[in-house]
Every structure is written in structure tokens, then in C-alpha cells.
Amino acid sequence: MKGNFEFRTRKSNRSLWVIECINPNCSWRLRASKIVPESTKFVIRKYVGVHSCSLLNRNANHHQATYVVIGEQVAPQYVGVEKGPAWRGRKHAHTLIRGSPEQSFHVLPSYFHMLEKLNPGTVTRIEVDGESRFKYLFLAFGVAIRGFRYMRKVVGIDGTFLKGQYRGVLLVATAQDGNGQCYPLAWGIVDSENEDAWSWFLTQLKEIIGDTDELALISDRAPSIKKAISTVFEKAHHGACAWHVAQNIKNKFKCADIMGSYWSAVNAYRCEDFTGYMIEISNRYPRVAEYLENEVGFEKWSRCHYPGLRYNITTTNMVESLNSMLVNARDFPYVALLDVIQEKMSKWWNDRRIVATAITTPLTPSRESELRPRFAQSNGRHTSQLNPITYHVKGGELEGVVDIFNKTCTCKEFDIDKLPCVHAVAAAHHAQVSVYNLVSPYYTKEYYLLAYGETIYPVGSQSQWDVPNEVVTRIVLPREVKEKKRGRPKTSRFPSVGEFRKRKNRCGKCGAYGHYKKKCNSQTGSTEGNPPTNVPG
User: By CB distance 3.0 to 4.6 Å, which of 160, 198, 301, 424 could disulfide with 323?
Assistant: First the structure.
């Protein structure tokens, strides 16, 4: 194909396309068919890329299939090809659909202008160096900034590497709504996860969410993040992701069997319970206990020792879920990637607005399901009034003294989660007070609806943009990249410390993945020497 050999179409219909070299004795051929009969998308099933015929069959005036031709044909319905000219056709199709990486830098100022124009209150930033080469970008939609007032003030931050031609790292800051779903606040693209990049991103973030004692920032323990947070945020409290701490323990001390006690210590509401779990850890692994206390610090990962308020949020899972959602878009040019982010957020805001409108209970569905069992658990508890606002609740494994005015309980669950514990439910019933009056407003239907009450609008096609000349003419050049290494570009990252990737088991009998030969239910017998019949594509 690259050599412009002449080809002919052997078969072409609505579900199949087969082309071959004009020489019937040549082995070159390509076969593509629909993924499924009802689909409009084709996938290349077979490709023999070597011509066994003479160069006389190469003629620039006849039918040829260059990678540009393939790219233009498959761009509207591209699924995937893997190597050689087909790979170059894939790349060309990507350029037709999403634009080139270089074009993405050029159009970035205009794209941000349109986002701000169509979504009032949106904050965008582009940082370039002295030669007008791209360094960083920052994006926060106005609706998310305004909606943050209805969120618990806990923000998870993390980064994930990008796989496109100019690489970089995508930074994310997200809160969690009253229904336990991620609420993206801000996005950034930087060169790498270094202190300067994090400091720049966090400075932009600080401008939209502020810096107060109520604010909690949760991240992994990377030195660059820790130092940047301590430099930019003077009042907010920094907490470590308990999952990352657990992975470090398993990797450093090889003691996975202590994880039960560790997670019990993480989630303990009372310091007395926490101390008991730490004694268990110390008795079995003294070095682990010393690491958790002195190197990490109890106040960073323990719920009961945290100096601020992080509610029930102990990990950065809400950020990791966003990274997973974008796994297939991380090799896109920057503007195309931001378009995917905008599209996803627009859909989330609309879907969740519909859910919020249909809620018939005072709380969000997840908090309602969490609170209801406590009504049944409160039955049979003996409650006595100590003063107009304080009640003593007996029964069960633990007694509790509840202050229904200040919304506290000696079990500390009510204090930290801001959702009535079983003692508070019993006290509210005794005081003839609605238990919903004791719930944090962040968990209510009203706040949930207000958080998603607005709409995120797309910028539309570039031909419809109305952008001032001073924005159009702003120069943003691609960043300099290191010389490309030989071979296929790397598209998967190295696992984090303590992170393990499961390998799929392959059956020695049927060749399929996901089970062993002993557990194979196939009746086809051995396929030794034959290709597997169910290889994941």
C-alpha cells in the first residue's frame, strides 16, 4: 500500500469489504467486516501486507490504497487496526477526526475563549515559556465552581500520564457529592508531576475554592504534592490516601496479613479503638507501627486523628475513577481530550439532575439507604434525657451521649460523618425531633439538585466560533519533546509502588482466557498447536 501497488475490490457490500492486489498470484490482501451485523462500524479482520508480485504492478495512475486513503475511508467509522500501513491509516483517521497535536496547541486559546463564553464563570489558564511554547493549562467549569458550595469541603487531587505525541500529565481535582459520586472541580495539563507544576496547578485551584480550615486535601504521598500543598495552602489540612499507604506497607514490609488491622485503624472513629488496633499491629510488626506513626504520621491517614474534617473519605478513589474513565482518551490531542471531558461532565450533570428531580426522600439515595437501617438498630435502646439538648443512650455494644443541638455523640461517628449515628437516631426519637434535622445539608436532596442545577455547554464546531482577533492570533507552540524512542510508543504506565496487575489465566485445553484447563467446560478437546479461539482483542 505504501508503495502504491495497484489493487482491486474483490467484494464489497454493507457488511464486508475485501480488496487484493491486481496480480491474482500476489499474497497482498485486506479484509474488513462489521463488528456485529447491526453495527455501522467496521474492523480490519485480516491484513497480509507483503506483496509477492513484481514492482511492475505499481502504477501511480491506477487504483492504489495509501494510508491516507484508508484514513479518510475509516475516519467516520474507525474501530481499530494494529500495524504497518494500517496503523498509519489509523493515525491519519485520528488526525481527520480530532485534529493534529500541533493544531491542538494553535487552537487552544480560541477553544478556551469559547468555553468561557458559553459557560459563564468558567476559569481557563494557559502558561507558556519565553519562546511561547506550551507549559501548563488549567480548566474549571463555572457550574462546577458554583456547585462546590453544595459539596463537602474535601478535595482529592491526583495525576495520570498522557499517551499522545507530546505526552504530559493530566492533573485532576475533584470533590464528592452528597450521593457519593465524584464531582470534578478542575483539570490541568502539565509537563510532569514535579513541584513547580503542582504549585502552579494548586495556585489556580486555590483561586476558585479558597483556603480555609474547613478544607481538606487528599492525595498520595508524593514529595512534590506534599511540598506544593504546604506552600500554596496555609490553612487547609492535607491528608494521605489510605489506600496508597496500604500499598506502601505491603511493598516495603511484605505483610499483607496485617491489612485487616490497618484498615480497622484507618476507619476507627474513636481514639480508644484506634489504639487497640495499633497495638495489634505493633505486636506483630513493630516496624510497620513505627512507620505509620513516625514516617507517615497518624494525623495523615487515621480518621480519628485527622485535624480537620474529611468525613468518610479516606482514599483518592474518586480521582482514580476519573482517570479510569479517560483511559481511552489519554492519547488524544489536548483539545480533543478536553472535549471528551466536557462531554462526560455535561452528561453527568444532566443525568444526575434527572435523578435528583425524581428523588422522593429528603436525602440522596445513598445516604437514605445508609440511615434507614439505623432506625431499626435504635429500637430497644434505652434513652434518658440529661438536659434540654443532651441524651444518654444505652444498649448495644457501645453507649452514647448525644448532643442534638451541636450534633455530636461520644461514639464520634455523628461528629465525623455528619450523619446521625444509631445513638442520635434514638435521641431524636425520644426528643420527638425529626432525624432529618440532624443531617448535614450536604446530604440532602436540595443540595444535590442545586449542585447539578445548571448545564455545561459544548463549544460546537470550529466554523461556528466567534473569537476576537487578539485571541486567534495568540501564539501557543507545542512543547519540546525528547527524541522519539524506537519501537511502538509506550501506552501503559509502570504500576505504582505496591500496585499489582493481575494476569489473565489462559486455558491449555480450549485456549480461552479466564480459567484453567482443569476447570474447562469445553467439549472440543485439545487445541494444542492451534491458535486460541477466544483471545481478548
Answer: 160
Length of the chain: 537
Contact 135, 129 (CB under 8 A): yes
Residue 123 near residue 115 (C-beta atoms within 8 A): no
475 within 8 A of 137, measured Cβ to Cβ:
no
- At 468 the three-state DSSP class reads coil
468: its cell numbers: 476576537
Neighbours of 213 (CB within 10 A): 12
Cβ-based burial of 194 (10 A; exposed 0-12, middle 13-18, buried ≥19): middle
pLDDT in tens, 365-386: 999 999 999 998 998 899 999 9
CA 415 remoteness from chain centre = 30
| Residue 97 in grid coordinates | 477526526
CA 216 to chain CA mean position, Å: 19
E strand segments, 365-429: 382-387, 390-394, 400-403, 408-409
User: What residues have CB less than 8 Å from 199, skipping those under 6 apart?
Assistant: 228, 231, 232
Element (H, E) at 275: helix 271-284
Nearest to 69 by CA among 84, 54, 86, 53: 86
**What are the pLDDT digits (tens) for 18-42?**
988 888 888 888 888 887 777 777 8
Residue ranges of alpha helices (H) inside 148-270 are 195-209, 223-232, 242-253, 259-267
CA dihedral defined by 355, 361, 362, 367, rounded to 10 degrees? -70
Residue 64 backbone phi and psi in degrees, to 5: -130, 155
Residue 295 is classified by DSSP as I
